[in-house]
Specification:
about 300 residues; mainly alpha; about 80% helix
Length: about 300
């Protein structure tokens, strides 16, 4: 099956389940929800970046650097720098992270081809990805504000009408960016429906693990083996497993450590979002440097 068709079926499947969730009562045990979300993000969610080491080795070769240790040191130092910056300037770091993450989500999720004639592409990609941030603010403002408060930031001054405008602009951006407007728009509608149905943590977990991460994994599997998806999947699991396990263990240790100072749910939320921020920045920088060097060669 071609990767583009696989992504289309995936969009339909996610949208179908998003619609179903709107009409059924799952009777969730909300005491367990943070733990379940944490487990999914720390495993399935982070796994889509678990081949960054191989990409890093590829980048080092372009700079004629033979020692792969330089990649690991650079990646870890940048991740720790983000954690340190968050502890010193939490509100500013969070805002910066949300802007960067919005662009990243918009770019990575736009997998149905770009409209080559479009102007202000990067801004439109930012608008598309901003839906992941604006939808929970609009449909579950109090719960989202509580998460931001745990992360040492305050969003109480944000205007509800401005959030709604951002959602509308995000939905409209699909009509300008993508060659296949239908499936791109379906993905955005799924995000809206998930946030309409669930609280912010569940909606984000479903999006991040089952839409964003799986999409990225599809592309990696296709890179590994373009002719046989099953073999590519097996190799992807084998290659991604070591760093995924290490990251999951680090996340669990972080929760254990922070639980000495915060309630368990607060510790989980801090590890999820600060941990993802610390991984997102080096992940995005790596993708940018690879893309820039591939254009030169």
């Amino acid at each position: 099956m071609k990767i583009i068709n696989l992504n289309k079926y995936h969009s339909i499947l996610i949208f179908f389940f998003s619609v179903i969730f709107c009409f059924i009562n799952l009777n969730l045990n909300y005491d367990l929800v943070p733990l379940i979300c944490f487990f999914l993000i720390a495993t399935l969610g982070v796994s889509h970046g678990a081949l960054d080491n191989l990409k890093g080795f590829k980048l080092l070769k372009k700079f004629n650097i033979k020692n792969n240790l330089y990649f690991y040191l650079s990646y870890i130092i940048l991740a720790l720098f983000i954690v340190a910056l968050w502890s010193l300037l939490p509100a500013i770091t969070l805002i910066f992270f949300l802007f960067v993450a919005s662009f990243h989500f918009g770019k990575e999720d736009n997998i149905f081809g770009y409209n080559k004639k479009i102007k202000f592409l990067n801004f439109l990609l930012f608008l598309k990805g901003s839906l992941v941030i604006s939808a929970p603010m609009y449909f579950n403002f109090d719960e989202t504000a509580e998460i931001f408060q745990i992360l040492d930031a305050n969003i109480n001054d944000i205007n509800e009408q401005m959030i709604l405008i951002m959602i509308i602009l995000s939905l409209l951006s699909n009509f300008f960016i993508s060659k296949n407007i239908l499936f791109s728009f379906l993905d955005s509608l799924s995000i809206v429906l998930l946030n309409y149905t669930f609280d912010p943590l569940i909606a984000f977990t479903v999006y991040f693990c089952f839409l964003h991460s799986i999409r990225h994994a599809f592309s990696l599997i296709n890179e590994i083996n373009k002719s046989n998806f099953n073999k590519g999947l097996a190799n992807f699991i084998k290659l991604a497993l070591p760093l995924t396990v290490i990251t999951g263990i680090f996340f669990m240790f972080s929760v254990y450590f922070l639980n000495h100072f915060y309630l368990l749910n607060s510790a989980i939320l801090k590890v999820i979002f600060i941990g993802l921020a610390s991984l997102t920045f080096p992940h995005i920088l790596l993708e940018y440097l690879l893309e820039k060097n591939e254009k030169k060669s």
